[in-house]
Amino acid sequence: MDGTGSTMDDALFEPAAEGGADGRSQIHIDNVSMVFGRKGAAVAALQNVSLDIAAGEFVCLLGPSGCGKSTLLNAIAGFIKPTGGSITVEGQPISRPGPSRGMVFQEYALFPWMTVEKNIAFGLEIKGASSAEIDATVEELLGLLKLKEFRKRFPKDLSGGMRQRVAIARVLALDPPIMLMDEPFGALDALTRRSLQDELLRIWQSLRKTIVFVTHSIDEAIHLGSRIAVLTYRPGTVKRDLQVQLPRPRDSSETEFNRLKRELARLVMEEQQRFAEDEVRGA
Fold it and tell me: What is the pTM of this model?
């Protein structure tokens, strides 16, 4: 039993090692805080968040709405600058977006006037890649994401799941070592969501990108993550940082999967209760 009263089997669900599984950090988040607004009307979104993420890990950020998951992801991306602490990637401070980090949003952010293949090629064209490199990369990604028969379609002609495949392919085209994903499957129906989760796992296992994935779904976090960091309600900080040892592929009907689910539900519900109490006080 740990300090939270958990009786989870440590062989299946244990505190993450510092710096990830091999102790070496690719992403180093050191006492990061984020305050929005000015004095008197300031809101603390994050407070003293520290995480070390190793190359090739699949880390899920889990927690209720308002816990700062997306804020932390945007800080790693370089879209916003922390008001306290620091974030480094491969030892280099993050001050702006860069090619080491590709971002996939819940909204697909595709160019509606471009075909699937043109959307995928766009970043490479801006980068100044050769026509041969662009053609080879687009062809490879159309195959990897099962999009070949849709290559000449426009986003309006695609389902939500297909649009998200294109968004993922467009990020992969630039070959970033790190992929940041902000609830990318949150707007999809359950069957499409599971299908894309499995596709993402297949891509991760093949390419071994580092993935930081924001979700509020406990099932999704367990299905995908090699690690799960549970954030507290605002101001967000790391409540638990846990390594998931369940073998893959993971079956949500299995006993151990559901044991993990109950433990995570307990942790998240504690923070959800804080949110509800805060809402009552503010009413």
Answer: 0.90
